[in-house]
């Protein structure tokens, strides 16, 4: 009876923790969305905007996060008119929207890159997007670390366990590996942002890999924004030149990993055969299932179970 009560208490505490985390996340989301809406509301009235001379008809004024290339051109036209009257206000609006989308994992960042490239050109838009994407991803990192860790582990246990094994295997060259992960379209950027604090990836490595790894794609999108009128689908964007640039950058990121792997094969006795890892496996039962935990030596067992915050994922050794 005592065991059943303790299990019920653990489940109730876990549900309460999830509820508080979700409620806090929603509150932060609404407050941030309200700040973006306030910046948008402070723009001059649309009636005060003047259409460019020589236009045969007035184009519609649209202000929303674009979801298609036609909407993107309409938003670009509207912001271009506002930029003539209040360029600083437009820049703050674009930055606040971009950060909001990055921190809270709202789809559409690629359209924002194109929009920035169309408004400011590559010399200004590239550093602008580089800073915004790095800061926004860092915000998502800290959001996961202090608020969403248990939820992310509960929703994506298999992905977290797989990523944990890869990070542990590449611990000796973690920075180039993280840069390559950012460049390669293998893991979504939002998942890397959320998983990094769970796997105890140092924040400095996270920032550096984000600042470097996201830039090739950002540069391609920003440069494509300069010719926005000729873009009608994503196929028009990813030409041979763009793909070649991304492949070269990915090869440069993978080069230290490949060189070290080759060196270990040539000189196997110079380095230890096993690289130690902060993340180990801990037997949870006598059968084939084990738990991957963040710090097994510090994990406190509660009635034979680990707290949810310590569990990174489950591995089935029978597979």
From TrEMBL:
Coiled coil: none annotated. Residues 107-226 form the VTT domain. It is a multi-pass membrane protein. It holds the Pfam family VTT_dom. It is found in: Membrane. Keywords: Membrane, Transmembrane, Transmembrane helix. The keyword Cell membrane does not apply. The chain crosses the membrane at residues 18-41, 86-105, 111-135, 174-193, 205-226, 238-259. Belongs to the TMEM41 family. This is G11611 protein. It comes from Coccomyxa viridis.
């Amino acid at each position: 009876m005592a065991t059943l009560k303790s299990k019920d208490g653990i489940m109730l505490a876990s549900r309460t923790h999830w509820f508080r985390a979700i409620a806090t996340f929603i509150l932060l989301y609404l407050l941030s969305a309200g700040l973006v809406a306030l910046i948008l509301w402070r723009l001059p009235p649309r009636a005060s905007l003047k259409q460019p001379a020589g236009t045969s008809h007035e184009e519609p004024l649209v202000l929303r996060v674009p979801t298609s290339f036609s909407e993107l051109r309409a938003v670009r036209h509207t912001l271009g008119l506002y930029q003539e009257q209040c360029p600083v206000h437009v820049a703050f609006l674009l930055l606040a929207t971009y950060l909001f989308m990055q921190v809270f994992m709202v789809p559409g960042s690629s359209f924002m890159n194109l929009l920035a490239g169309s408004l400011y050109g590559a010399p200004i838009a590239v550093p602008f997007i580089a800073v915004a994407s790095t800061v926004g991803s860092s915000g998502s990192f800290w959001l996961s670390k202090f608020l969403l860790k248990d939820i992310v582990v509960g929703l994506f246990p298999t992905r977290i366990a797989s990523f944990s094994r890869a990070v542990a295997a590449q611990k000796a060259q973690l920075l180039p590996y993280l840069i390559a992960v950012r460049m390669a379209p293998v893991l979504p950027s939002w998942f890397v942002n959320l998983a990094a604090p769970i796997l105890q990836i140092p924040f400095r490595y996270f920032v550096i890999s984000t600042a470097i790894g996201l830039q090739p794609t950002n540069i391609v999108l920003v440069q494509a924004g300069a010719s926005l009128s000729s873009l009608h689908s994503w196929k028009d964007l990813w030409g041979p030149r763009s793909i070649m640039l991304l492949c070269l950058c990915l090869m440069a990121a993978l080069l230290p990993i490949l060189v070290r792997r080759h060196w270990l094969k040539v000189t196997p006795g110079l380095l230890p055969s096993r690289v130690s890892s902060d993340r180990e496996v801990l037997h949870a039962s006598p059968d084939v299932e084990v738990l991957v935990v963040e710090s097994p030596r510090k994990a406190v067992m509660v009635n034979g179970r680990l707290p949810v915050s310590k569990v990174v994922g489950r591995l089935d050794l029978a597979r």
